[in-house]
């Protein structure tokens, strides 16, 4: 049972981490911004599933 709980939380953490690094295919009500893992002075603005580099 303990292993099941650990597996559940590990999968939940992976799902959140994976989902937060992708642009949604459809634009929502608000613009989605993603951090640039290489340069902290820039970010990506999502436009219909395509990340566009912004400063």
TrEMBL record:
Signal peptide: 1-19
Chitin-binding type-2 domain mapped to chain residues: 20-55
Keywords tagged on the record: Signal
UniProt key word Repeat: no
Superkingdom: Eukaryota
Protein name: LOW QUALITY PROTEIN: peritrophin-1-like
Organism: Neodiprion lecontei (Redheaded pine sawfly)
Residues of the full protein shown: 1 to 55 of 86
């Amino acid at each position: 049972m303990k292993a099941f709980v650990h597996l559940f939380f590990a999968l939940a953490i992976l799902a959140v981490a994976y989902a937060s690094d992708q642009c949604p295919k459809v634009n929502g009500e608000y613009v989605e911004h993603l951090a640039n893992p290489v340069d902290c002075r820039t970010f990506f603005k999502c436009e219909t599933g395509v990340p566009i580099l912004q400063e």
